[in-house]
Amino acid sequence: MPDEDVAVFTSVLQALEDVGILTEVVIIGGWAQHLYRRYFQDPPELSAMRTVDIDILFRRPPGIRPTGSIDEALQAAGFEREIAGDGSTKFTSREAEVEFLIPDRGRGDSGPYRIRELSIGAQSLRHLDMLTVDTIAVRYGRHLVRVPDPIRFVFHKLLISKRRTQGDKREKDRTTAFELAALLSGIPVWRASIAPRFQELPRPQKAAVLSLLREADSPAVAAIES
Q: What is the pTM of this model?
């Protein structure tokens, strides 16, 4: 990961810390993989994937008590507030883009979710609920950052890959999932949790996840079926 990208990411973490919400949000997307590399001590199974977007996930409801302004904190880090095409809030700089996400609630849940405490609108997206359960904390410099349970992150990446219309993004999601699944399958304490996590999925999601893992000849299949 280039030093300048890491510096931008760290500045966003500091902004969240300054606002008092860093421990209440979950970092997902490409930066989650970067954090998994730190958590698992740079394993060879995980490639160092470059990313621009910084995706910040809130629980629903967020349950936050900010102590400062997100606008002021991110503007101090070089970002400017913008409104995305769907009406949600994002912050952009020349180097990166910060987006806010929240789990949707199914049919009838359209438009951004208003987080009044921060005066922002978060994108409501499918399959994000699972990423707010059993999150893990990663020490990153002076910050303690939360990322999803890595097994659920694998399932999430596979499920959203099925919905991708762009082939490059679909393949990136699947590569991320397959690499992480291979790593977790080789660590006994994580391997033992793959099948129980899999059983939490609804039947259609189980079928989709297992089909993709079998296509990739992933060792996670044996963990699920053992």
A: 0.94
